[in-house]
Amino acid sequence: xxxxxxxxxxxxxxxRRSMADVYPFRGLCYSSQRVAIADVVTEPYDKISPExxxxxxxxxxxxxxxxxxxxxxxxxxxxxNVYTRATAYLQDWKKSGVLQPSAAPAxxxxxxxxxxxxxxxxRERMGFVGLGRIEDYASRVVFPHERTLAGPKAxxxxxxxxxxxxxxxxxxxxxxxxxxIDRILEGVAAGPADIQLTDERGVEHxxxxxxxxxxxxxxxxxxxxxxxxxxxxxxxxxxALRFRDEMRAAHPGxxxxxxxxxxxxxxxxxxxxxxxxxxxxxxVARLPGFDATAFLGRAREWFDxxxxxxxxxxxxxxRAGRQRPSIGVxxxxxxxxxxxxxxxxxxxxxxxxxxxxxxxxxxxxxxxxIERGLGITxxxxxxxxxxxYAREPDAAIQAVKSGAAQIAFLLNxxxxxxxxxxxxxxxxxxxxxxxxxxxxxSGLLIYTLD
Length: 450
Description:
Elements: E1 22-23, E2 28-30, H1 50-59, H2 65-68, H3 82-96, E3 99-101, E4 108-115, E5 122-133, E6 142-143, H4 150-163, E7 165-166, E8 170-174, H5 180-188, E9 195-198, E10 204-209, H6 213-223, E11 228-232, H7 234-250, E12 262-269, E13 276-278, E14 281-284, H8 292-299, E15 303-307, H9 313-321, E16 326-331, E17 334-340, H10 346-349, H11 355-358, H12 361-373, H13 378-382, E18 387-390, H14 393-401, E19 407-410, H15 416-424, E20 435-437, E21 447-448
Parallel strand pairs: 6-11, 8-12
Antiparallel strand pairs: 1-5, 2-3, 4-5, 4-10, 5-12, 7-21, 8-11, 9-10, 13-20, 14-18, 14-19, 15-17, 16-17, 16-19
Helix pairs in contact: 3-4, 4-7
């Protein structure tokens, strides 16, 4: 089930806006004297495949994967399991000095230098890490843009209840067209970095502890008038909301500054260069009675179709997408570009959606091709009964060529302005509509509630 509320009541509000509260914090950091930082940090928990987990386990006995995505044992019990082991690891690493508190409460400048997969030229993205107040969505301070599932939140909640710590930051976006905050961050990053590493994808990560009280105060004040959009971390954010409410009930006198009222976030300016969204492609398998010819005949009701070569498929989708919403289809040995019919009345086809939602390629894919063309229900999509996802188009194509999948859909990336407008309108997109690249690493900075 999904937990994002219906936001239509926002239309009844006036122009009031709440404010984002951000705070410096004294986080736990890995000691570079005890471990090699590159060997103990990981991708976010939900991006870690079983193969990646094995690699992380083998790299270092203090790798953060043991906490955020530990291995279950056959003899696990309610009193001894992945969550209790995570707590034991945290306490042991603190006691042994592998994890040490930062010298003072601070914001941290976070810079990533990277190359987009399949593209040429280096890019740079810079933001800052701090604590953000956990806000109900109804307050209109924090805005989601994707749906969430109950299963991952239950897992994250047990981890938070046991460890009473956050090991990953929520990836947050804010608007600052004047780039006031960016100029402060650039000044701090002019000096030597406190933490520096290159990850398994070749992304260079660097962090600087912000030691100037004046800079910290300026950023805190400047962020006060801004709204936040969750780019990555919806499940973790909603988990923190649930945990906050549990703690409020258990400690009614704790007050607004209680540690559970906040969580670590990395804040990036939507108006700064370097923000990249990649497409996430869909792979369909195990669909009873699948018939490619019948599906394509159904798709012609909504899309014009052009044959494409395998070598040209990605570029062809991009070119077609400049004119109108377009989707690539791979089935058997054939490739097509499906471009939305200009005369199609989307309001009649999807009357329950806003114009902004109907303009999204990923919504057209799910509503028309997946749900109506293939007969895969929204419930089945949520449970990934027939659909898996791939970042690289070659992986989706190969799945069909090898016979592991019946059909694959290739997409152009969602634009940042589309995501922003959907979020501010109180709407949500299908799962995995956006893939922000690169990810914010887990284990760089840890926030303990105790």
